[in-house]
Each structure stands twice: as structure tokens, then as C-alpha cells.
Write a structure and sequence with these properties.
24% helix; five-stranded antiparallel β-sheet; four-stranded antiparallel β-sheet
Length: 198
């Protein structure tokens, strides 16, 4: 997958990290805490992406749907919506809770992304959330992670959704900022298994 990421030489990231860690505001300022998380990732060589920028810059299909999707990593399917009268102009939704659960299971299942793109009327589509192989999943609580992937073709209904390839495993740093903690290509075997989802 080819999306814009933020990287920084580790030494430079460690210097910025030390600066934020030494600040007295660290304990009381959420943005300072997010900066510490971001600079820690960059110091370890982990790239960061800005979700709104990545989705806004993504190529689109004939109906205006991005060829990228994001969902919580423990989900099986996501519904994309661009509904300006409900979301507001310039907002796009990736909803992996369109069956509507409540409580902890629903946390972070709907991700609204402000792309500032001109609305084209109501557009929706469905995509299958990629499975995470053991080599990538090990050490990660998938209920706390997200997957960003290339959607080859959105389905117009829940039935007939096909598996895609080339996902990233993400950790949220801030509402629009994510660290890329894993990437892989789905094998033909994994895609065949995913086709059996109901």
C-alpha cells in the first residue's frame, strides 16, 4: 500500500520525546501525552499517518468511494457512508458496527473522517475487514487496534463482499493520528477462508 506517512530520524524523534517528557504539562495535557506517544513510535522507527489526509488523497471509484477503508481490527465487515445531510459536508464514515451493539463492544467501531471533500449525495458500500495473521497479531489486542487497507471494489450490499489485500495494522495515537505497527499481504489461502464469512 502506498499512502503518505510521517517519519523522522530516530535521534531527532528521541530529542523531541525528551523535550516533551521533561515538560511539567505532560501529566495534565492530553496533547502533550499524544505527542509523547507519537515521538516514541517515531524514535522506534514506526511510521505515523494522518487518517483524514490518507482518505482524502485516496483514489476513488466511479461513485466517489475511496479505495481505502479503516475498521477496528477485530471486526469482519465495514460499511462506508458519505451522507452529507447526516454527517455534515466533508465527512465520511466507516462503520463496522452497523448491526448496532452497545457498551464496550461498540467502542471505536464507527470512525468518522473529515476529508473536506465536496459531497456528491448519499453513497455507501461494504468491504470485508482483512484477517490478521498470527505473525502480525502476536502481542496486539485487536480490540484496541485498527486496520487500514486497499479496497479493490466496494460491494453495494453486504452479500457479495470480496476480500482485499495489502493491509496495515494501526494503533491510534490521537483522533486523526495513527502509528503503523504492522503490515502484510493476505495470501490466496487467507482470502479463500475469508470468502466463507457469513
Amino acid at each position: 500500500m502506498d499512502v503518505a506517512t510521517i517519519t523522522m530520524p530516530p535521534a531527532e524523534a528521541r530529542a523531541k520525546l525528551a523535550e516533551y517528557q521533561a515538560s511539567r504539562r505532560l501529566r495534565s495535557d492530553a496533547e502533550y501525552q499524544q505527542a509523547v506517544t507519537a515521538y516514541t513510535a517515531l524514535a522506534e522507527g514506526t511510521p505515523i499517518l494522518i487518517l483524514s489526509q490518507v482518505i482524502a488523497d485516496a483514489p476513488r471509484d466511479a461513485r466517489g468511494r475511496p479505495h481505502l477503508a479503516i475498521a477496528r481490527a477485530d471486526r469482519r465487515q465495514v460499511k462506508y457512508e458519505n451522507a452529507p445531510w447526516r454527517l455534515g459536508a466533508g465527512w465520511e464514515r466507516f462503520d463496522s458496527d452497523f448491526v448496532r451493539t452497545r457498551g464496550p463492544a461498540a467502542r471505536d467501531a464507527t470512525i468518522d473522517v473529515q476529508t473536506r471533500r465536496e459531497p456528491t449525495g448519499y453513497v455507501s458500500g461494504y468491504a470485508m475487514v482483512p484477517m490478521v495473521p498470527p505473525a502480525v497479531a502476536t502481542g496486539h489486542d485487536l480490540t484496541q487496534r485498527f486496520i487500514l487497507w486497499e479496497v479493490e471494489a466496494w460491494a453495494d450490499r453486504q452479500i457479495g463482499v470480496q476480500p482485499d489485500r495489502d493491509p496495515y495494522l494501526l494503533t491510534r495515537i490521537a483522533p486523526d493520528c495513527y502509528a503503523v505497527v504492522g503490515e502484510w499481504d493476505l495470501t490466496d489461502v487467507e482470502r479463500a477462508i475469508m470468502r466463507g464469512r457469513r
